[in-house]
Design brief:
Layout lengths: L1 H27 L2 H8 L5 H20 L7 H14 L1 H11 L2 H8 L2 H13 L5 H18 L8 H24 L5 H23 L8 H28 L2 H6 L3 H13 L6 H21 L3
Length: 294
């Protein structure tokens, strides 16, 4: 009885870890809708700064923990990879690329993580998991790309760089482990990224003349739900799950973004988009099943 119960407990815990980690990319999938409906227009750096810095400072105040020893420079590295460099590149790409192109490029992250894991962690992902990652990219392409999608070279470069930075952060976090809870780690990195972004934002965009109630609501949602809570759960997932499992969860981002567009913006899906959604969902499920711990 005990021998049977133990594997069930492990599977249940693994499923719980997956579900909590998936909340992060799922919440990020709502960013486009929130940005277009609630945030002030043409303020990408302001959006990035207000996502990172307030959430980081609040988490620091709540946890009251600071890095020690070598974790100072590691926090700076991870904070730049996850926020200080990543967020501006993402917003830059978003302003120069259609959402479908950006989502398709972002969906190659599991393949980048697999490559970096091989070199840094000496972990060789199972071939079926790689097939699932490739299928996921194809599904996202069918789901999000349109015939009139423009391919801006600088936007593509920015998105590829951002995707690679987050992939590197996943692998390094797995290699280094964590000295504190995911909530503490999120506070450290968000603060680092926000402090780097603040002077750049003030110099490039300045302070907006006014803020509406909708703007405040949008920034509060992105800061609390899409950043503080989401990244704490994301870092928890990185700590507990295989690297490719975490990166494959990123497929939930474009799927949730599509569903949000359907429900909130009144968009519709073509037959090919339905096929793409099905393929991406199947790749996500298959990849997690194949990567599941015994």
């Amino acid at each position: 009885m005990t021998a049977v119960a133990a594997p069930r407990t492990v599977r249940a815990r693994y499923a719980s870890d997956l579900a909590l980690a998936a909340f992060a990319p799922a919440s990020w999938g709502t960013t486009y809708v929130v940005t277009t409906t609630l945030l002030p227009a043409d303020r990408p750096l302001l959006a990035a700064t207000l996502r990172a810095l307030p959430a980081g400072l609040v988490l620091l105040a709540v946890t009251r923990r600071l890095p020690r020893g070598g974790w100072w420079w590691r926090t700076i590295v991870l904070g730049m990879l996850n926020f200080g460099a990543f967020l501006p590149l993402i917003f830059f790409a978003a302003y120069r690329l259609p959402g479908g192109v950006a989502a398709t490029i972002g969906s190659v992250q599991p393949l980048v993580v697999a490559l970096l894991s091989l070199g840094v962690l000496r972990v060789r992902p199972a071939r079926p998991v790689l097939y699932a990652a490739v299928a996921g990219t194809g599904g996202v392409a069918l789901l999000t790309l349109t015939a009139d999608a423009r391919l801006d070279p600088l936007g593509i470069l920015a998105m590829l760089t951002a995707t690679s930075l987050m992939a590197a952060a996943i692998v390094l976090a797995k290699k280094w482990g964590r000295p504190e809870s995911p909530l503490v780690m999120a506070g450290w990195q968000l603060t680092v990224g926000g402090l780097v972004l603040l002077p750049v934002t003030l110099a490039a965009e300045g302070v907006p003349p006014s803020m509406t109630g909708e703007n405040v609501l949008g920034f509060a949602y992105l800061g609390i739900v899409g950043t503080a809570i989401a990244y704490a759960l994301w870092f928890r997932g990185i700590d507990r799950l295989p690297p490719t499992s975490v990166s494959l969860l990123g497929l939930t981002n474009p799927m949730v973004a599509t569903l949000a567009g359907l429900v909130i913006l009144g968009q519709t899906l073509t037959a090919w988009q339905i096929v793409g959604f099905t393929i991406a969902l199947g790749a996500l499920v298959a990849g997690q099943t194949l990567n599941r711990r015994p």
